[in-house]
Description:
Layout: H1 2-9, H2 16-26, H3 28-33, H4 38-43, H5 51-55, H6 63-88, H7 92-115, H8 121-133
Helix pairs in contact: 1-2, 1-6, 2-6, 6-7
Amino acid sequence: MTIFALRLAEHCDMSRSSIMEAALFHDAEEAWTGDIPSPMKKMIDGARVPKSKMLGDMAWLANEEMQTVQALVKIADLACDIKFLICYGDGRHADQVREQIAQRLENHIEKWKKIAPSLDWRDIEMEVDELLTAEETHLDDYL
């Protein structure tokens, strides 16, 4: 996911290191818990690490830039979730989950187009589409 977030960052005028740092922090709790659904994390004591605690080291970023960095990381995360389900999901439930995540991704992009209209959204969306439609994607390049 970090590598794909960096690819999205190529279409923005922001620091690649801040994108990489935020992407790594984004998945930090999964290093401890594994990749489990968020509702389950709420049920497991100590499974969630407050993002503000982890992202505190990035306080040097302006608040607006921090939000944009986090938005791009979330786009990369959702797109990689969808790609994982395209490649490895099996059955009706996987299709339903993929559709739900695709809707969340679309809503997230539409929201951020309004908040950060100066970003090159056409290229960002093309990058996401390329990941999701490529027949032979080496998923390890993105996850």
